[in-house]
Amino acid sequence: MAKIIDGNKVAGEIRAEISEEVKALAKRGVVPGLAVVLVGDDPASQVYVRMKRKECMEMGMLSVDHTLPKTCTEKKLLALIDELNADARVHGILVQLPLPKQINEGKVLNAISPAKDVDGFHPINVGKMLSGEPGFLPCTPAGCQQLLMRYGYDPAGKHVVVLGRSNIVGKPMAAILMQKAPGANATVTVCHSRTRNLAKYTREADILISAMGVAKFVKASMVRKGVVVIDVGTNRVEDATKKSGYRLVGDVDFDAVSKKAKAITPVPGGVGPMTRVMLLKNTVEAAKRAAGAKKR
After folding, report:
1. Which of these, 91, 206, 233, 265, has the minimum number of CB atoms within 10 Å of its CB?
2. Catalytic residues
3. Is the peptide bond before 123 cis (omega within 30 degrees of 0)?
4. Which residues are paired to 4 by β-bridges?
């Protein structure tokens, strides 16, 4: 059976490191601040925002929350982002997606100051990521990289196959791992819904990272023995034994694939905790950069 790559364990290690950084900043009179903007009343988004607020408080960070009605106009949301860009207490800004149809997501994300774009979605930060310059990396791909490195599965020289080409996971994951840098130096293949004979590529992978959003898409026949699997997918499937009526599964058929893999992330408890902790890490980094800029 495969070794379980425990995201909760690694996230705990990173939280401990963040806590020390927050204490060091506090001695300089700096409290890292994260502003989270939620538009509408989506239950899943509300839960996610509450978790982020709780984690900020546990770390000794400032949490600034703004909840707007789902009828909020694009103009009003952009005005709020302008206020947060100018607020010295706020070092990171996160606008919870998805947004209502009347609001252009691209326009909103581009309005966030690159210096406070702790989600790593602003075109300037995307450009820095592609060129290998210091910036903010998107939280989920950065979390995947941390899982690999902290469990001793260095991507250097390995063939990494990424399933999915979204701007949130697939594309940045490929960009991060192909860099000439520690934790990277991989040969990367990106597969997606139009890839012909997709299983041919997945069977060649030393490391397989799946972000397709399709429950149990990756079968045991699609991987080679000894592969390292990072399952980013979070999919709901019906389960009458659960009070909620559903359970969460990944993109990978965990039970079958774990019998062939060297190591694998579970769902839940794998990549999910890493996404949240990398957001905190980016926020602390933004606070350090802002404090450094003030000193100069």
Report:
1. 206
2. 52, 96, 119
3. no
4. 264
